[in-house]
Amino acid sequence: MCKIFIIDDDRFFGEMLKHHLQLNPDYEVFLFDTAKDCLANLFMNPDIICIDFGLPDIQGDELFKQIKNLYPDLPIIVISGQENIEVAINFLKQGAKDYIVKNEHTKELLWSSIIRLKENISLKQEVEDLKDELEKKYTFENTIIGQSESIKGIFSKINKALKSSINVSITGETGTGKEVVAKAIHYNSPRKNKPFIAVNMAAIPKELVESEFFGHEKGAFTGAAERASGKFEQANGGTIFLDEIAELDLNIQSKLLRALQEREITRVGGNQKIKLDVRVITATHKNLAQEVKKGTFREDLYYRIIGLPIELPPLREREQDTLILARHFIDLFSKENKIKPLGLSAEAKKKLLAYNFPGNVRELKSIVDLACVMSDHSEIMADDISFYTLEKDSESFLDGQKTLKQYTTDIILHFLKKNNNDVIKTAKVLDIGKSTIYNLISHAETKKLNNN
What we know:
- It comes from Chryseobacterium joostei.
- GO terms for molecular function: ATP binding; DNA binding.
- This is DNA-binding transcriptional response regulator, NtrC family, contains REC, AAA-type ATPase, and a Fis-type DNA-binding domains.
- It holds the Pfam family AAA_lid_14.
- Residues 3-117 form the Response regulatory domain.
- The protein is an alpha/beta fold.
- The chain folds into three domains: 2-133, Response regulator (Rossmann fold, 3-Layer(aba) Sandwich), CATH 3.40.50.2300; 141-313, 3-Layer(aba) Sandwich (Rossmann fold), CATH 3.40.50.300; 316-451, Helicase, Ruva Protein, domain 3 (Orthogonal Bundle), CATH 1.10.8.
- The protein has helices spanning 11-21, 35-40, 60-70, 85-93, 106-137, 140-143, 149-161, 178-187, 209-214, 231-234, 250-262, 288-294, 299-306, 321-336, 346-354, 360-374, 404-418, 423-430, 434-451, and strands at residues 2-7, 27-32, 48-52, 76-80, 98-101, 168-171, 196-200, 239-243, 264-266, 273-275, 279-284, 308-311, 343-344, 379-380.
- A five-stranded parallel beta sheet has the order 2-1-3-4-5, with helices on both faces.
- Helix 1 packs across helix 5 (106-137) and helix 18 crosses helix 19.
- The longest helix has 32 residues, at 106-137.
């Protein structure tokens, strides 16, 4: 319901506007004869106010100022018998949303103006709701799950990081949740309404890193058809998260150091200096101090980015957090797939606690997701939980960084091999369509042919 105030000492004219607006059942309209009556009822929190310029007790411009002082964001439409351009421009400069002259078209003009304002109000509310959801999503308890002493120590470090814009360096094994921590810091900081830009160093070809970081001008190199902003420019005012920072080429390290020291960048092929206000959060699974000793990472850059160090513990050192996380992932999987949440049997709990999770939290989530699919009961049993070890280079199934699609492919291929390439049996075991397996095989064969 949109609550609208109309202030007009011409009772007949005011009633006409009120009647016309109330043709829309979503509008709740209140009519006042004087400015004082309007001010006395502002506690009702109107969504839109329509004021007459010529009022008997307080002039419209004075009423406008008093309302704006009390409620700066409240939309106000001025309705006046004066067709005075200078007066209209003055009101619009002060923040009036519209200036409507009293004539035979006033009803229609007011109707259209309120529709536009209502759309803007709805859009603004949607944006605020999204911000609230984002803030709730990235509160510590919703992102960093656990009650162990080591995780409490991480909470303490994050709280210290929120007190300033100090750079943060996050270390920890693959799958421990480094990007989750980076987002928790950004979305709980004063920069939360500005961009969070994540860059994975390992995923960018060495020759493209400088352009990705700093952008480029049109014609800077072959294929640069248009000017493009880089990740640092996109993150201005917010946070840039440089994941796998240890993979950065030494040549680019020197350019990154210069940008951080001078707090400005220049696009590739350009001369314009762009000022930076960016918080830098880095992450790596390597020991940067050792990389400095080996000569693969610049010592001066190391001291520039180290800031507040946060080391994430592996899951095997987080006591009972394994079961807390498992419960969280079961509930999350159930919600996303619209199924009834499953329980976790005593034997299943023992099996999870006995495993050391080389892939950490990421591996636990993948295992739990599959267990939810495999379960035929109201709770996950021990037999529903599978730990995979790939034969290739004796690596754990979940070592390294993969997408969920890649993990799914590995699981399907594992069961195909186990079932002697029997597609029907594999589809039944995994409770998936045969077409999914055939498409996978077809894609693999095509890729193999292309590689040959």
